[in-house]
Design brief:
single chain; Thiol Ester Dehydrase, Chain A; globular; alpha+beta; 137 residues; 5-stranded antiparallel sheet; two-stranded antiparallel ribbon; 7 strands
Length: 137
């Protein structure tokens, strides 16, 4: 029986300082949005104790831009935790405006202990909160 990632929607406020000289959202803003969305996802689904004991550090982002975003667009970042391997987590974040995909982001993160700042593995019960197991027949 395979479990599936639980999607997490993070609404994005496109602000005036996100807009570049070409009149659309600057590429750097997408990174800011992904970071905020992944951290919000963690804080929303992980137990309070785990949130207090762990921090996340981005290791890599790979962004595919599909369409530009503009000031006052209704934008949503949908976060999926693909898998956890040791202290690393692999995410997919899709940024949309309605049914239009604006960007797709693959990212990897390292979980660190909040006190020592050393890599830390998450307990299985914490990881399981991010996945939905299909109902048994």
């Amino acid at each position: 029986m395979t479990s599936h990632a639980q999607p997490y929607d993070f609404p994005i406020d496109v602000a005036a300082d996100d807009i570049d000289f070409m009149g659309h959202v600057n590429n750097a803003s997408y990174l800011k949005w992904v970071q905020a969305a992944v951290i919000s996802h963690w804080q929303a689904l992980a137990p309070v104790e785990a949130v207090a004991q762990h921090l996340w550090v981005a290791l890599k982002h790979e962004i595919t831009y599909r369409r530009p975003a503009f000031l006052d667009d209704d934008v949503v970042a949908t976060v999926l935790l693909e898998r956890v391997q040791g202290a690393r987590a692999f995410y997919e974040t899709v940024i949309t405006r309605g049914s239009e995909v604006l960007a797709e982001v693959k990212s990897s993160w390292c979980c660190v202990d909040a006190e020592t700042l050393r890599p830390a593995r998450l307990a299985r019960d914490v990881i399981d909160r991010f996945f939905v197991k299909p109902a048994e027949a």
